[in-house]
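Exercise 3.2. Students should predict the tertiary structure of the chain below and write it as structure tokens, then compare their answer with the key that follows.

Predict this chain's 3D structure.
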Amino acid sequence: MGRINLEGISKIFGSNSSKALDLIAQGKSKSDIAAACGAVVGLRDISFDIEEGEILVLMGLSGSGKSTLLRCMNRLVEPSCGRIAVDGVDVTRLGRKELLAFRQKTFGMVFQHFALLPNRTILGNVGFGLEIKQVSAKERIERSMQAIELVGLKGWETKYPNELSGGMQQRAGLARALAADADILLMDEAFSALDPLIRRDMQAELRDLQRKLKKTIVFVSHDLDEAIALGGRIVLMKDGEVVQIGQPEDIVARPATEYVERFVEHIDLAAVLRADQVADRSAPVLAPTQTVAEARTALGGAGGGASRGVWLVADGDGRLVGRIFAERLASARPAETISSLLDLGQSVVEAESRLDTILATVAAEEAVAVVGRNGRLIGAITSRDVVQALAARPGTHDQPHAGAQILSKPSGAPTWSGTSPNSPSTRSATTASTGSPSMAVG
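Answer key:
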């Protein structure tokens, strides 16, 4: 069970919600339901889990329901049916006072347009939530200043919002959420109002903060490049339904529907694949204690054959110690040890490196070693491995490429459960739900 569990969440806007829910159960499409009873389906039978400490991106075009789903998680928008559990607490069953207390304790929210109070300084804005919770002034200032420093605004705490740039104001909004020390951050198009360069900086900063603080972050975006930059799982939505869930590289390489394929067709696969996903883990790895004769036997012949010009060498703990060229292995005396023949000039990349950032290194080397954070060897990447990985992307939705199997399914990534029966329309109602005067279908 994840940190947040969504089970059968639907949201109906307008009257006749009970009839609309019955039609959903019968498998009727969004357009059929609108024609039958005038109701608009904002969300349709959504179920998935969000794991603790992950960044999960809800994305889709305007009207896909992504913002509505985010607001359902803390009941700023009331779901019409279904269950939302957070840390085992059924949020849908909480009374008004219980819900308010639970929100203050559990959720921090960052909005698209900053939502800073113009008559308060940055320090006053960041500490506003703590003031509402009646935290003492001393503790409020201490926690606010810690959050301000964390987002890089130290020295600006006495300024007012109109004295800060858009990016700095968004940092202040993020600091306000962090000061409340909520474990779950809900971020609704938080960076979409920023200029591209500032936006990229904020994306990188959010990744760094998540690595430090291990918050669970649910991030709404309509921008696939942003979702890929954030690096977490993606929930891709259309017409109030989930059409695919997975890691960015999984969605880009293996789109589940024609709609998803069109959505991701502009994305460079090399920008989403990581080194450890491309590395060849099947090639033999030699040990420095082996003799040349033992190494030749392990490789299946003198020098290991002509198909490969270099072999990697790792110690007993699996840590890379160097490489040996096939020609040197072929000319060495059988009794010599591999350690005496080592070349220490092996190029190394980290497992998390994006493929597009290491292409030049791979092109210049016979084989590039891929190591994990613990220094242990994962495998090697050659130019052939890169070509195979990029060829794995299907050319058309109906004709997946034969090389697609080289990408392994990420653990914990739910599979897509079926095509959307809804109409192609990407527009939805803008009628707010009860108790949520400003919330529209996202």
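Discussion points: The CA atoms of residues 123 and 145 lie 7 Å apart. DSSP finds 17 helices and 15 strands in the chain.
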